[in-house]
Amino acid sequence: RKGKTAATIFRARCAENRIAWLKITGATNTWDPRYYYGFLLNVTDTVEQIKAILDKDVNIQSLIDDTDNAALVLDYDSRKVLCVNAAACDLFELNRGELLGLTLNDLYRESMKTAIENMLEQVLLLRKWNGRLDFYQSGKRSYFTSETVVRHMSCGGKRLLRVKFVNPKISRERSRPRRLFSDDSRRLRLIQ
Measuring CA to CA, how many Å separate 166 from each of 8, 12, 70, 98, 123? Predict the structure, then answer.
């Protein structure tokens, strides 16, 4: 309508579940502004090259080290925990090795199963999901509720979920102080 050139890129699912990236560009006809013409280009190769460059620059641990909140990274397909930060070890009351041996199913309360399944579907489409979820602590002896921020991303050809826990609320008061399990807290205890 305004006689300007416009362009957008979108993805389409093809046969055999392949993804094709398409760019459509349109412009008004200079001889007759009532007509608009356009081009549809397959830019899949260009997108794949850009993704490969970005994948090389991303270290998985760096996805969670930049936050003060508890965070972890999961493999989307296997649901295994790939890496955790110190705050996540403290929140779950497990050491790094114990957390890395778990899957998403080991972390959330059974009452959250439907919410987790919905989140996994939505995060694939929208790339981001926010909501309140309940997770186990101390090997299922207690739990916490947290505002949970989940981002879907790709790195090195893997589909990943970055899960961040904001303002967690512990389900009950403890009679003894919480044990800290992060490497940083162990270092502090050894020094003191």
Answer: 35, 34, 7, 22, 18
Q: Are 145 and 171 in contact (CB under 8 A)?
A: yes
Residue 85, classed as helix, strand or coil, is coil
3-class DSSP state for residue 111?
A: helix
Residue 38's Cβ-count burial label (10 Å; 0-12, 13-18, 19+) is exposed
Going from the C-alpha of 167 to that of each of 59, 148, 176, the distances in angstroms are 26, 9, 21
Distance of CA 23 to the CA centre of its chain: 26
This prediction's pTM: 0.61
CA–CA separation, 162 vs 112, rounded Å? 18
Report yes or no: 83 and 64 within 8 Å, Cβ to Cβ. yes
pLDDT (tens digit, 9 = 90+) per residue, 35-77?
878 889 999 988 888 777 666 555 677 777 778 899 999 999 9
Kindly give the pairing relationship between strand 6-13 and strand 70-75: unpaired
Rounded-to-integer distance, Cα 153 and Cα 120, Å: 13
- Is-contact 6 25, C-beta < 8 A? yes
**What is the secondary structure of 139-177 as a DSSP string?**
GGTEEEEEEEEEEEEEETTEEEEEEEEEEEEESS--SSP
Helix (H) or strand (E) holding 132, with range, is strand 128-137
Residues 164, 167: Cα–Cα separation, whole Å: 10
